[in-house]
Design a protein that fits this description.
This protein is mostly helical. The protein has a domain at 124-365. It has 22 helices and no strands. The chain is globular and about 70 Å long.
Amino acid sequence: MTVILTNNTGSKTPSRSFINCTASILIAIALGIGLILWPFATSASELGTHPDYTDHWIGIICIIIFVLAYSLVISEETLHLRKSKPVMVAAGIIWALVAIAFVSNGDTSSAKEAVRHNLLEFAELFLFLLAAMTYINSMDERGVFDVIRSWLVGQGFSYRKIFWLTGGIAFVLSPIADNLTSALLMATIVVAIGGTKKHFIATACVHVVVAANAGGVFSPFGDITTLMVWQKGIVEFGEFFALFLPAVANWLIPAIIMSTVIPRGIPNKLDEDAQLQHGALVVVGLFVLTVAMAIASHNFLHLPPVIGMMTGLGLLKLYGYYLKRRDDFFPPPEENGLGESALELDQITPSDTTNYSFNIFKALERAEWDTLMFFYGIILCVGGLGSLGYLHLGSELLYGNLGPTHTNILVGVLSALIDNIPVMFAVLAVLPEMSHGQWLLVTLTAGVGGSLLSIGSAAGVAVMGQARGTYTFLSHLKWSWAIALGYAASIGIHFLVNKASF
């Protein structure tokens, strides 16, 4: 997920030119991959009965359109162009070309069936995330995250204790509240306590991003990619916990190395006062119940998990009705208002903050609509390329030639360079024949691989906005070698502790 963050300082990110350069390099890499695959395109027809338009002019144009659209996504930080816009346009053009290709061969139904299949996959993901985002925003509005932040900031812990507490909480919270929310919450604490200690803030933010991404891989709710794998039915809910020890290694190894440069001493104690608003604990309880219903829907009723999530959203809406009626009879004092959110998840504020009552549709408005629409564009783009035969071709070239182990490790590296969502969706679209251990491996690498670079995960991008000018691409890159050690160790531990699943 990506968030809208305000820049209170108005300062420029020092690494912007470096990000521009990185974007150009990634575009060149994407074009280079296209040129590398070109010699194999003519043999794609031998891969099976899948439609093959990889050597057709329409297929070539679709690849170019996707590369151009994704280059704009990569350059979002520089261009200030929301990432959903280019991929949504690209999806429409690609599917129009797919339809032309099929119709020209007398097939008037396959394109329609394929696009409906992709829309169904998007709808399940969209509604699931919408319910989860609404719950997170409702807990934020009720002051749950403000209280956690206020308690940590006001305890007067040492720099080292803050370093370990923020990372540990991010690791534990991510499986429940997702890696993005956890990283943002802990980043606000680091920035508030760090003050002028920019070196501490930068290092602690790297730690938070790594911990949040690692914690998200052993739960379906921790990251978008784990959610996609769970909804596909490939890995059951309880089976994700097999990745706990690899996730711990991925977090602790770089954390121990980074902790050696954390300064000793105690920062100035900050006095912050935050209180839970009425109904906060009930909202938390409803969220836990909703998660339980999603699990039960999938495991016992064999229904999509989204059924449980949307039912839980309905319960939240009913409870929101009670809160609204209560606030109408007992309006809050004028000086309280809405309060400042610790997460700054959006810039939307009620028009009348002096008489504000809980409104479930305000929480819905604050959902990350740009991110949700980005998922639409990516799923439709990748699905369109799959209809032309590119995913099957790529699967044969990678999983057939390199083998599943090397390919799944490469998926993690690609997740850092590009994004784990399109990479994982492509893997799920072709469904290569792999052992259960290999599916757990690709789930692990896609989840934690993004930690190698600050731009490799939504948590990293969001924290760069939260600690703008201090936590940057270069400050994260300084520790990439330590993060790579954790990445390698997590893979090794996975093979060791889960060897029976291979």
